[in-house]
Amino acid sequence: MKQPISRWARGIAFLVAVSLVASCGLPRVGPNKREIFAGSVQREGDAFIVSVNDRVTRATAVVPSLGFSDTFKNASLLGSDTIRPGDTLGLTIWENVDDGLLAAETANATILEEVQVDGAGFGDMRESW
Q: Which domain of life is it from (predicted)?
């Protein structure tokens, strides 16, 4: 046989549930103004607080220059090097995948120190591997 729950017991259960929910703090985005000022240098903390005014805004409104410098843009052209049979090359082959074709498991580059160009213009890499 079921016994009815008294109104008094329901009230207490409701109060306990409300107090449990109220005791949980909601997550915050960050400190409030009072907490920031409490950690400032003026109150023996380690945070520097700067009041932003027109002067500070002008001083910090620096637009970085993008692109190449005039010296670089006006530099003279360089002649290209010609690779000929018999030349020995040092190559670094970079791969942009985790499991590369030539690179080891933990590396993304392979260094071939001595690759000699044969008479047909191809590199002989057999000794480098």
A: Bacteria
